[in-house]
Amino acid sequence: MKQTKISRRSFLLGLGAVSTAALLAACGEAASSAPASSAASSEAPASSASEVPAAPILTEDEFPVTDGSTACIPLIAQIMADTTGMELEAAQSAVTTNTTAWAWRNLGLYGDTENGTRLIIAYEAPESVKEELKADGAPLDQKAIGRDALVFIVNEDNPVQSLTRQQLRDIYAGKITNWKDVGGEDADIVAFQRREDSGSQTLFQKLLIQGGELMDAPTELAPAMMGELVDDIAEYNNAANAIGFSVYYYISEMYSKPGLRLLAVDGVTPAADTIADESYPLCNEFYAAVRQDSGPDTPERKVYDWLSTNAGRACIQKSGYVAAQ
């Protein structure tokens, strides 16, 4: 079976030779924006939008090279299994991804190479990557296929149960520095962030910060990987002091950690039902994208269109995600 994804290490090693050889609309207060570059087009709905395929639409070898966000790995595996008929366990072992930023780059900038990315399932691209794609990338077709949410994580011993969006903004701006100021113990707040090119940091800045003040996090409080952030919050030596963020699906289904819990925001606890009905205030969509020059009979276009069918939406829901309406 063809590999679903080349590793980021292999990609970076081959990047120097590219010239000669191949290498989630925010709800609540957030303003909506396109997930990648302005070169992406609006498109007509797939003609098969209401049809449920009776059989797989691809062979295992035909499944396109796919990249995406870490939190989308289970969904990519389910898509692979449902569209090819392969066992889910085999699909899960075949799927690897890069960061959200690199997934968008790999499609828009390098997707026309021999082993290049043909399809991505990813959260919104960082603004810097949108600018790269706008300047140098190929036009993309992209659509929202599901909804997730930005969630905040604290130690289970922290007595604070809920924060408002304004309190969270003030914490991350350095204006509120002690938990006693938001109903907790007399202890300094240690606020973890992610690095700038991560999908969760992009959502954090879009949904919560919205161009406002943001303090610079020390390197040790800005881990590179999403799992590292969860680990760091759980293992911080003054555990009840720490706060950080992730996306709901990752922390609830992929990388839960004993001793941590999710905060309510504006009194609403993040859960599948509050994300589905948009009562939780920090929701955002995630996307499928292909290059516009992908023809109607290419494997990636077939999968992309299939995601808008009843079978595709059922696949998203079966994976535990909230499907876009």
Task: Give the SSE map.
Elements lengths: L7 H8 L50 E3 L4 H12 L3 H7 L5 H9 L10 E4 L4 H10 L3 E16 L6 E2 L1 H9 L16 E2 L7 H11 L16 H10 L6 E6 H7 L5 E3 L1 E2 L6 H5 L6 E9 L7 H8 L3 H9 L3 E2 L2
Parallel strand pairs: 1-2, 4-8, 5-6
Antiparallel strand pairs: 2-9, 3-6, 3-7, 3-9, 3-10
Helix pairs in contact: 2-3, 2-12, 4-5
Can you tell me about this structure?
- With 325 residues, the chain is an alpha/beta fold.
- It has 2 domains: 24-147 and 284-323, 3-Layer(aba) Sandwich (D-Maltodextrin-Binding Protein, domain 2); 149-276, 3-Layer(aba) Sandwich (D-Maltodextrin-Binding Protein, domain 2), CATH 3.40.190.10.
- Helix content is 32%, strand content 15%.
- It is built from 12 helices and 10 strands.
- Strands 1, 2, 3, 5, 6, 7, 9 and 10 form an 8-stranded mixed β-sheet that branches. Strands 4-8 form a two-stranded parallel sheet.
Sum this structure up briefly.
It contains twelve helices and ten strands. With 325 residues, it is α/β, with parallel strands linked by helices.
Percent helix, as a range, is 25-40%
Number of helices: 12
> What Rg is obtained from the alpha carbons, in whole angstroms?
20 Å
Give the terminus-to-terminus CA distance.
33 Å
Give the overall pLDDT as a whole number.
Answer: 82
General shape: globular
Please tell me the CATH architecture of the largest domain by its name. 3-Layer(aba) Sandwich
Number of domains: 2
Query: What order do the SSEs take from the amino end to the carboxyl end, as H and E?
Result: HEHHHEHEEHEHHEHEEHEHHE
CATH superfamily of the largest domain: Periplasmic binding protein-like II
What low-confidence regions span 5 or more consecutive residues with pLDDT below 50?
Answer: 1-34, 37-54
Proportion of beta-strand residues: 15-25%
Q: Which structural class matches the secondary elements?
A: alpha/beta
**Major sheet: size, sense and barrel closure?**
8 strands, mixed
Secondary structure: number of strands: 10
Per CATH, what is the topology of the largest domain? D-Maltodextrin-Binding Protein, domain 2
CATH class of the largest domain: Alpha Beta
Function: Part of the ABC transporter complex PstSACB involved in phosphate import.
InterPro entries: PBP_domain, Phosphate_ABC_transporter, TAT_signal
Main location: membrane
Family: Belongs to the PstS family.
